[in-house]
Amino acid sequence: MLAMAARQTWRALQVWPDVRHWQSAMAIALPAAALVALCGFLGGWLRFQPVVDLQAALIAALILFFIPVLVEELVFRGLLLSWFAKYSQRLGNWLSIALFVLWHPLQALAFGPPWAAIFLQPSFLFATFILGIVLTHIRIQSQSLWPVIGIHWLLVLAWKLLLGGPFY
């Protein structure tokens, strides 16, 4: 079963969506990003505070592409979504989303990173839930991981480089 999920995940990395799928992904992602931003500003974990050190920003962008973005998308919208869908697509979608949301407070409790308090806030968890729904929908519609990787990366970059998100 895991081998099948790994093959489907690999296939989703090999598919580059056409323009129509990218447009559809952005049409869903932009309103969701606005909702996430609203959660963040109301919850106090977003504030306009751009990083001014260009070298640090470039290094952070590279690191953030791999961790958390690529790793999380390979796990939650790749392996788990493919694995759970074998039993039930709808149930698999919701399990993948739920585990994506639960992963964040688990990180806070297990590793205690600088952003641990943020990961435990209800507004952050709600924003993560919205993001999980949107990314799962885009992954299913596009049959590719690239739009969800790109959207997730852009949102994390905006948070960390423009909106006061804590660094590693």
Oligomer: single chain
Name the poorly predicted regions.
Answer: none
Shape summary: globular
Q: Taking all residues together, what is the mean pLDDT?
A: 95
Q: Let me know the largest β-sheet.
A: none
What does this structure look like?
Helix 3 runs antiparallel to helix 7 and helix 6 packs antiparallel against helix 7 (146-162). The protein contains seven helices and no strands. It is 80% helix and 0% strand. By secondary structure, it is mainly alpha-helical. The protein has a domain at 59-168. 29% of the residues are buried.
Index terms:
mainly alpha, 7 helices, 168 residues, globular, 0% strand
Q: In brief, what are we looking at here?
A:
This protein is mainly α. The chain is built from seven helices and no strands.
Topology:
Layout: H1 2-14, H2 19-43, H3 54-85, H4 89-111, H5 116-119, H6 122-142, H7 146-162
Helix pairs in contact: 1-3, 2-6, 2-7, 3-4, 3-7, 4-6, 6-7
